[in-house]
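Board notes, transcribed. Complex of a protein with adenosine monophosphate.
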Amino acid sequence: MLGALLLLATAVVSGSFIAPLSVHAASASRSGSAVSRGAVLRDDRQGRQTRITSKSGIRSVDPCMMTAGAEKTVMILFGPPGAGKGSQAPKIVETLSIPQLSTGDMLRAAVAAGSEVGKQAKDVMASGGLVSDELVVSIIRERITEADCAGGFILDGFPRTVEQAKMLDEMLEGSGDTVSLVLALEVPDEILTERICGRWVHKTSGRSYHVKFAKPKSLVDGATPSEETMLDDETGEPLMQRADDTEEALTKRLQGYHEQTVPILAHYAPAGVVSKVDANTAPENVWESIAKVLP
Ligand code: AMP
C-alpha cells in the first residue's frame, strides 16, 4: 500500500501538485557550493567565497577568503500555512535542480486515491491536525531513496515536530548527510488567515488563485466566489478550496505550527543552517531574499 502511495507521491513532486501562488515566476541559475551542516563557508553568486556567521544560530553571509566542500543539499522549506512555500518552491527547484518533497501533497494524493494511508490521514488532515510521525517519516524515508534525490532534495511540510526532525537527522546520518539549510518564511498570523481562507486551487495543475490577490478571470467584480464563479484561467474547470483552508482548521494548524513546528528552528540553530526570510511582502521580493541564501 505504501508503494502505491509513493508512486503517487512521485507524480506529485514531479510537478502536478505544486501550487504556484504567483504567476510571475522568476528564474535564476545555480551557482556556488552547497552549504553543509557546520560549514562556515560558501560561494556567492559571483563565485566569491563567503563566510556564514551565526548570530543566535541564524545565518548571515559575509565575504571572506576560504573554501567549503560541496555536499548534498538537504533543505527544509519552513513556514506556516500560507507563507508562500508552494509559490516559491518551483523557483527553488529550478535553481537547485533537486526535487521538492511535500508531505502535504503526498498525503492529499493518498486521500484522493482512497488508499489505506489516505483513509488514515483524511479526517485528521481535514480538521487541521497532524498525522502520526511514523507515517510521514516512513513516506519520506522511502521517497529519498529514489534516484532523483541523489543530489539532494527540498523538504516541504516536513519535519513538523522536533521528534520528526530528530528522526530525519537519524535517517540522514545513515547516508552521511545532514540538513544543510532550513529556510524559514516568516509571515504574521493575521495575514495568513486572509491568505489561506481566500485561496482556491485548480486540483489537476496545482495552479493557485486568491479571491482578492490573484483572482481568476471568471470572478467578475462584485461576484461571490463559488464553484460557478471560480474557474481555472487555462482550462475553465472549477477551482476548489482545500478542506483544511477554513478559519476553524487554520486556527488549529497555526496553533500546531507555533507549538510543535517552530521549536524545530531551535533544534537546527546550533548547526548554523537556519536562514529567516520576511515573506510578508510581494512574491518577487520574497524570491529575491530566498535567492540570496540558496546554496
Ligand atoms: P500542508 O499541505 O503541508 O499544509 O499539509 C496538509 C496537512 O497534511 C497537514 O495539516 C497535516 O494534517 C498533514 N501533514 C503534512 N505534513 C505533515 C507532517 N510532516 N507531519 C504530520 N502531518 C503532516
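The first helix runs from residue 2 to 16. The chain has ten helices and ten strands.
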